[in-house]
Amino acid sequence: MSRTTIHDIAKELNTTAATVSRALNDHPSISSATKESVRRAAQKLNYQQNRAASSLRSGKTFVIGVIIPSAEISFFGSVIHGIEKVAKSRGYNVLLFQTNESYEDEAQGIRTLLQSNVDGIIASISKETTRYDHFLEVKKRKIPLILFDRAIDELDVPAVVIDDYKGAYLATEHLIQQGFQRIAHISGPQHIQIFHERLRGYVDALKAHHHKVDGDLIMYGKVSIDSGRICTEQLLNLPQRPDAIFAVEDFTALGALQAIKETPWNKPGQIGLVGFANEAFSAYITPGLTTVDQQTALMGQEAANIFMSLRQEEENPPEFPQKIVLDPVLIVRQSSLRRKSQSNHGGK
Amino acid sequence: MSRTTIHDIAKELNTTAATVSRALNDHPSISSATKESVRRAAQKLNYQQNRAASSLRSGKTFVIGVIIPSAEISFFGSVIHGIEKVAKSRGYNVLLFQTNESYEDEAQGIRTLLQSNVDGIIASISKETTRYDHFLEVKKRKIPLILFDRAIDELDVPAVVIDDYKGAYLATEHLIQQGFQRIAHISGPQHIQIFHERLRGYVDALKAHHHKVDGDLIMYGKVSIDSGRICTEQLLNLPQRPDAIFAVEDFTALGALQAIKETPWNKPGQIGLVGFANEAFSAYITPGLTTVDQQTALMGQEAANIFMSLRQEEENPPEFPQKIVLDPVLIVRQSSLRRKSQSNHGGK
DNA sequence: CTGAAAGCGCTTACAG
DNA sequence: CTGAAAGCGCTTACAG
To answer: Which UniProt keywords apply (chains A, B) (predicted)?
Structure first.
């Protein structure tokens, strides 16, 4: 009792496999009567196409390979969601590979995806990766490669990123508009581009609103809860202490919040706080954390959309790789509202 | 400049494709000298196996299909992580399909995976699904099917679940041991098995410790933040109000926490609280939420392990499907510690 | 509108 | 230990 093939259907209908294949693929030169009877027979015999055979012959697999550091990180889970959603709607499937931030695993992943003849690869580069030979191999084989979030300009491939500069600008401007006067920033390592961009956005927003940029108010942390706490303690001990803090991302902001809460002279709402990333916890801590949303699911969708458009233009690919820069979205919650009580009363 | 095939390697070495294939697959009857030279030539020519061709001929794809409601839910992201990790270590890849809790999408997913000739399917059933014909089709084709978390006994297939009864028992016992006297439970809809099991665990723990089971202290909520808040307000207005609450899951617990904080007469630490699921936010709210961890990544790993063992025993499959019940892990944080100050001072 | 035939790149039973 | 040959299930250029 082996699987039904197009030959079984052909036999059933006294026709040939070629006709059956064409009918099932809705080939224009097949009469609609034939198509109808083939479809009926296929249904009756419970036929399922063998994709391996189809792709071996046609060269198309309708599979998109996705390479991410870890599906356990909610950011990537969300991006995968967006990618798979678009892929499915266009008849594509997603083959998933995790790198655990390792270069070796990433190179292995690329090899596997090439062996699987994926029609394209969407990837976010591992932290550890500094050589790009595996990605160059993908380019050499003319397989569409799209990067997201952690993009590498040097590779000269399409990418979807978020506008970190603008997100930081919006966050800082919001604090200014709330009336805060001395706004500090806890940044991260400057060799990582996104952190540097956020610092630039902070500085430019201050300048645009004629606020002084004070080097004492800029800390370089290690991007963690502990680091956020430590930097904040130092900031609050300054002779001229800040009245608001923009943290480079939400975990840093969380540490900052803990330090703020422990400060004896602090009253709720006295020190403004904004984070970045809109992590899962940000809405649920007290006070709710104002932050910058990165539109993660949209990022995945746009990456998949670029892939789809590359498929269309296969014969004459665009001269310059497309780069999509997503707009960050400021999410205002209680942590940045000035001198208001933090009671949740009546909140929902 | 098309891709290198085994014929190219054979030509290079004046041998045949058969020998090259055997050498690359480490076939025992090939001399090690031949294997070595084939491998070298393969490397030199940058050969990558064509998996479509291989699996068309051999019938094995080394692909595991995974069906989940959504990768955006951190629980599933974490399970995928576990599955992919084990799969990769054994040379398998993961083909991902999301159902968005829809029966139609789920059936479509199964169809796609069957067409892709996956070697096995690991799935968590959509909330909407009440017919199982698509899963029966998988069984009929003798393709290993493993369910996790949302398992269906009726299908009679292997499954990995968590022991909800035990998790609830541990949570309740912990509150008893902290010295709380009147412990309430906010449950969920009883037609969903996991919620019913948690209620049973709560009741049995009370009984085992000679606590009275008071129907007034058992609420049936809708499993959401709002519902947790509403149920808690009602509980705290009882003439004989509870001094601790075990919530059916962390979002309900979060709502409960909000209600507790707003209660005027409440002092920190006076009302004990435990949740269930160890959601991403649970560690970061104030006070930190004591909860029950579901070992999500382990759940994925175990599901993948079952698949691997089924592969081994392909010829004589086990008579009864294997069921793995994972041990829940109680994570104690501040929300359940009795009459202690909630200061974070010195915490890390 | 349909058929006959070749071939995608592998694997593997059979023969030596 | 290696080779010749068949075949997995499709698709598609060519012919009619």
So the answer is: DNA-binding, Transcription, Transcription regulation
**A-proximal residues of B, 223-252, CB under 8 Å:** 226
pLDDT at A33: 86
Which residue in B218, B181, B166 sits closest to B338, CA to CA? B181
Architecture of domain B6-49: Orthogonal Bundle (1.10)
Domain-wise residue ranges, chain B: 6-49, 63-161+295-326, 164-293
The domain A63-161+295-326: what is its CATH number? 3.40.50.2300
Adjacent-strand bridge partners of B220: B187
Asked whether the CA dihedral B29, B34, B35, B39 is positive or negative, the reply is: negative
Give, as one character, the DSSP assignment of residue B270. Answer: S
| Window 5-44 of chain B: CB closer than 7 A to strand D | 14-19, 22, 27, 29-34
- How high is the pLDDT of residue A276? 96
Q: For residues A144-155, give the mean pLDDT.
A: 90
Fold of B164-293: Rossmann fold (3.40.50)
Confidence at A184, pLDDT banded by 50, 70, 90: very high
CA distance A228 to chain B (A): 12
Q: In what order do the strands lie in the sheet with B93-98?
A: A323-326, A159-162, A145-148, A120-123, A63-68, A93-98, B93-98, B63-68, B120-123, B145-148, B159-162, B323-326
In sequence order, the β-bridge partners of residue B325 are B161
User: Which token pair is B77?
Assistant: 């992201």
Structure tokens at B179: 């010295």
* Same fold for the pair A6-49 and A164-293: no
How large is the average pLDDT for residues A139-154? 90
pLDDT recorded at residue A127: 81
Strand D atom within 7 Å of A58 CB: yes
Residue A280: what pLDDT?
81
Terminal Cα-to-Cα distance of chain B (whole angstroms): 58
Cα separation, A227 vs A242, whole angstroms: 17
Locate tokens 């175990």: which residue? Answer: B302
